[in-house]
Amino acid sequence: MTLTEKQKMLAGELYRPGDPELQADQARAKAWMVRYNAALAETPVVRRALLAELFGRVGQGAVIRPPFHCDYGYNIHLGDEVFLNFNCVILDVMEVRIGTGTQIGPGVQMYAADHPREAEGRRSGLEFGRPVIIGEHVWIGGGAIILPGVTVGDGAVIGAGSVVTRDVAAGATVVGNPARSR
């Protein structure tokens, strides 16, 4: 059985992002972002309903302050009482799961999207992804970047401006570039 490019993407295999099905999914997400980002003055109830239109899961009390940007939306899963402040970016070519009670500062970026390391692979236009999993009751300071394939354990703290290149243990505090335990 031959997999579609979308199936390859969701499986973490190399895929072609220019595939018509994936381009249509991105166009849908772009149109949604225009509506969502124009909804800053709307009530949290209205914004939550908009989130539910696109995301894989939106827990009770989850809040994202616009502006917000993503690739597809359907791979994003928010637990209850999750909060993302202004100007966050989630590149969700694979699952991005954010656990209950997690607080995320402004300008945080989470990347499930990845690229081949060798130049020939990048020239081919192929991409792949690795999931990003954020545990429960995590605090991520403003401007932090979470790289593909990273899991952050429950109760961890990521310092503002940190670049998280590897998994973070539950309860740990990491800071810097690359982020390291304090």
Automatic annotation (TrEMBL):
GO cellular component terms, semicolon-separated: cytosol
Pfam family, one: Hexapep
MF annotations from Gene Ontology: acetyltransferase activity; O-acyltransferase activity
Keywords: Acyltransferase, Nodulation, Repeat, Transferase
SMART domains cross-referenced by the UniProt entry: Mac
InterPro entries listed in its UniProt record: Hexapep, Hexapep_transf_CS, Hexapeptide_acetyltransf, Mac_dom, Trimer_LpxA-like_sf
Domain Maltose/galactoside acetyltransferase: 6-60
Family, similarity comment: Belongs to the transferase hexapeptide repeat family.
Job of this protein: Acetyltransferase implicated in the O-acetylation of Nod factors.
Protein name: Nodulation protein L
Organism of this sequence: Stutzerimonas marianensis
